[in-house]
Design goal:
The protein has 842 residues and is mainly alpha-helical. Among the domains are: 67 residues, no CATH class; 36 residues; 102 residues, no CATH class; 253 residues, no CATH class; 80 residues, Arc Repressor Mutant, subunit A, CATH 1.10.10. It contains 32 helices and 19 strands. A hairpin with a 2-residue loop joins β3 and β4. α7 runs antiparallel to α8 and α20 crosses α24. The longest helix is centred in the N-terminal third of the chain and has 40 residues. The two termini are 78 Å apart. This is Tellurite resistance protein TerB.
Length: 842
């Protein structure tokens, strides 16, 4: 109820005071503007009520103290002894003695009265101190500044003991002695402090706090934090900054001894860790440490790992002063930069261009940067000396002072430090090295983006540049090497699903091109190959088929680099093994003939020859299917039919017996090539293929024109090896045709009409993007160049089209249609769904 009555009283007082102020304003302030009169009428009652309530509370408190005092306040006449009555019959001597006796009693009573009054006053003061919110500290205000208290020298403020590293005393004025502000860092013992600190959140703290300007409750919170050893990192950072202002002033203004400087540096480093999540703390404390470390050390040690790490973590927008000092000092002393210093220079430079691989793969990036730097500059990088000298202008975090720092180098401290801020050439060289390193780490970085905990796995290690394997070893990769050696020793044939499961650590229901490509890359990086190679094989293995693991002899970085001769021979091997499988058995003579064919092929590297032998073993174990050979044969140029015919005829003669099934298979090949099947018998009988026009269709006598020669007569001679070799050596022209054959899917026509109808599954796409999607889903993978081409045909920018298509797919299927991985992989699930919808003719 007391609160309700208080509110009613205040409202009543305000109403009465308001009317009084209105009358006063109307009479006495009539000359002022109306706005000022209204302001007076509104604010004056508030000021009066505040004064009245404060005065009322004080009087009530004093009455309660007196009422609750344990010492009774007796009347003065009751405390004094009454002197004896005057007896006229007494002589003068007796009168004097009586007066002396009464005097002594009066003095004793007066002393007792004084003591009782002092006791009552002491108890009253004690009661007031206990029941008032702020209290005065026991220490008397200092008449002058006591100054800095070193670490280890305890000082007590408001019953709180602080272990030094603070300024205590009357704060000096910053700026004018009359109008300046009190120094923020000084703890003034004369100021009131609350009984307990309850403002850890800093609700009453200003942006630039000062001990003299913050409320009593904030002073109590600050002193409690200091007394607790400054260990609480959850307190408002403003309290930490209030303490830091003192450290900053002591270090830079007072210039203490070196041992004390090192104590201050260590304390600021501790605070920086304690408030690691606060950006302002990291920035201001970091800028202070940037110069304080150097000043505390009397110089800089270029081998100080702690200093280099601090430079790397610096969050300033410019080059850190400590880095400028180190780089300038090395230039002044004629030293060359190593990879670590150039990396630090680039990392801290405001114009750096570091992409995701440099951040996500920090350790790998630094290591690769060093390897590339050492290869380019084995003796280090020498830099010309700039004319501008290094100078540091430091602005205090407290905003109370600025200072300039000029340091020198050399054993005698007499070498001026040049300023490297404006040098561009070293940074450009570092950027070039960094760009190469980031490009090589790009696939590794993307893998870690999809698998944050995948570092050290087989797939991750396979994507890591080979030169880093020794620096970042992988136990899983060593186990993979041992497993691969065992498989090769056992013949090399391994179920494809087992290979993928071994590499990825999980069993899949489908085998996509990405899985097979990743497996081939992983094995190639450890010196083993896999056939068929998914990037340029006629087809990849199915989930229930094997692959061939074989030794490459050395790690290989680029499996996709193959010659035209390799492509030609791989296709001829597929046709030859198709014929060899025709009678359902492969004899040793046929195997030997096929192997000899690989050995006789010219224009191959030794590595390509090994890979062709592995592909041959796969063709021998997994018979080629005419259904997928036919689609490749129809794209072969008629000019190269002769080489293909010679290959299949040669394998048919390999075992000395030509079976009817082999003849039938050759006829299928000839028909797929568009050649008259009747030539099969002539070629087989001759053992060679004539070089000249051949009959595709029987001639009609009545048609005039040049006569086509009859089929060549059978010869006993064997195949003309020289002629076949001449045809094969025309590799440039062959590859231009066979390069298209090795594409796993045919391109979809890009011609679109305005009347083209799209299924409902394409809803949400405009016609151009719908046509693009219709083409995309026809294949499992597109190279960068192919995607750019089909997007361009629709009048779309590749990057924009990719974003639109994937956003549409996410909205509709909750996953992207295209995944960037060595080109663009098409989501098989989305593609199947869309093709099914299109087949319905929706």
């Amino acid at each position: 109820m007391s609160i309700v009555w208080k509110i009613i009283r205040i409202i009543a007082l305000y109403v009465v005071s308001f009317f009084v102020c209105v009358i006063i304003a109307a009479i006495a302030l009539d000359s002022l503007p109306d706005a000022l009169e209204a302001l007076f009428a509104l604010l004056a009652p508030i000021a009066f009520i505040w004064w009245y309530e404060k005065r009322r509370a004080t009087k009530i408190s004093e009455r309660e103290v007196l009422a609750n005092s344990p010492v009774p306040l007796g009347r003065e006449d009751e405390q004094l002894s009454q002197p004896g009555a005057y007896q006229p019959r007494q002589n003068n001597a007796e009168l004097i003695r009586a007066g002396q006796q009464a005097r002594a009693e009066l003095e004793a009573a007066a002393e007792r009265r004084t003591a009782e009054k002092q006791t009552r006053q002491s108890q009253a003061n004690q009661f007031l101190n206990q029941h008032s919110k702020p209290k005065k500290p026991k220490e008397k205000p200092l008449a002058r500044s006591q100054g800095w208290v070193r670490k280890g020298q305890a000082v007590t403020i408001a019953d709180r003991t602080i272990d030094g590293m603070v300024y205590v005393g009357t704060p000096p004025r910053i700026g004018s002695s009359y109008y300046g502000e009190s120094c923020r860092a000084y703890i003034d013992p004369s100021l009131s402090v609350a009984r307990s600190g309850s403002d850890k959140n800093g609700d009453n703290m200003s942006y630039w706090p000062g001990y003299s300007s913050i409320p009593a409750v904030c002073r109590a919170t600050y002193l409690d934090w200091l007394a607790g050893g400054r260990q609480d990192g959850t307190i408002n950072p403003g309290y930490m900054f209030l303490f830091f202002y003192g450290l900053e002033r002591r270090f830079l203004v007072d210039q203490p001894p070196d041992d004390e400087k090192q104590e201050i540096v260590a304390e600021v480093e501790r605070l920086k860790v304690l408030f690691a999540d606060n950006y302002s703390a990291q920035r201001y404390l970091g800028e202070f440490l940037d110069i304080a470390r150097i000043m505390a050390m009397g110089g800089i040690s270029l081998d100080d790992a702690t200093l280099k790490q601090a430079i790397l973590e610096n969050r300033s927008w410019d080059l850190p002063f400590s880095l400028k000092f180190a780089l300038g000092g090395m230039i002044a002393e004629g030293k060359a930069f190593d990879a670590e210093w150039l990396h630090l220079w680039l990392h801290c430079h405001p114009e750096r261009r570091l992409r995701t691989p440099a951040e996500r793969c920090g350790d790998e990036f630094k290591a690769l940067f060093k390897l590339k730097f050492d290869a380019l500059y084995p003796d280090g990088l020498k830099v010309r000396t700039p004319r501008k000298l290094l100078k540091m202008d430091y602005r205090a975090a407290s905003s109370e002072f600025n200072c300039s720092v000029n340091l020198t180098a050399g054993d005698g401290g007499d070498v001026a430090i040049p300023d490297v801020t404006d040098l561009r050439s070293p940074v450009q060289k570092a950027q070039k090295i960094a760009d190469e390193a980031m490009d090589e780490l790009d696939k590794f970085s993307r893998y870690l983006g999809r698998n944050p905990d995948g570092r050290g796995s087989i797939e991750a290690q396979a994507l890591l540049p080979a030169e880093l394997w020794g620096l970042f070893p992988s136990e899983e990769l060593e186990e993979l090497k041992d497993w691969a050696r065992e498989q090769v020793a056992a013949g090399g044939l391994v179920p494809a699903l087992d290979v993928i499961s071994r590499l990825e650590g999980e069993t899949r229901e489908k085998l996509g091109k990405r899985n097979l490509t990743g497996a081939a890359d992983a094995l190639a990086r450890i010196g083993f190959g896999m056939a068929p190679d998914p990037r340029f094989s006629l087809r990849g293995p199915k989930i229930d088929e094997p692959v061939v693991i074989f030794e490459l002899g050395e790690p290989v970085e680029q499996l996709e680099d193959v010659s035209p001769a390799y492509r030609t021979e791989l296709f001829e091997l597929a046709l030859a093994t198709f014929v060899a499988h025709a009678d359902s058995k492969i004899v040793e003579a046929e195997r030997r003939a096929l192997r000899n064919k690989v050995e006789a092929t010219k224009g191959l590297t030794e590595l390509e020859r090994k890979r062709l032998h592995a592909n041959l073993e796969w063709y021998l174990d997994v018979p080629p299917d005419m259904s997928w050979l036919r689609s490749k044969l129809k794209d072969a140029d008629a000019e190269h039919h002769l080489a293909l015919r010679a290959a299949v005829v040669a394998i048919a003669h390999a075992d000395g017996v030509i079976q009817s099934d082999e003849v039938a298979s050759i006829e299928k090949i000839y028909k797929a090539l568009g050649i008259d099947a009747g030539l099969v018998y002539a070629d087989l009988h001759a053992g060679d293929v004539a070089d000249g026009p051949v009959r595709v269709k029987a001639a009609e006598a009545e048609v005039p024109g040049e006569q086509i020669p009859d089929e060549p007569k059978a010869k006993a001679a064997s195949l003309d090896a020289a002629r076949i070799a001449a045809i094969r050596n025309d590799t440039e022209r062959v590859s231009s045709v066979l390069g298209e054959i090795f594409s796993t899917d045919e391109d979809v026509s890009d011609e679109a009409t305005a009347a083209h109808a799209f299924p409902s599954s394409m809803a949400g796409l405009d016609p151009k993007h719908a046509m693009l999607v219709e083409q995309i889903i026809q294949r499992e993978h597109w190279t960068d160049e192919e995607f750019d081409e089909i997007a361009g045909k629709q009048g779309l920018m590749p990057s924009g089209a990719l974003e639109v298509v994937n956003e549409w797919a996410f909205d509709k299927f909750d996953e992207a249609l295209l995944d960037e991985y060595d080109g663009y992989d098409v989501s098989p699930d989305i593609a199947d769904t869309l093709r099914a919808e299109m087949a319905k003719g929706d």
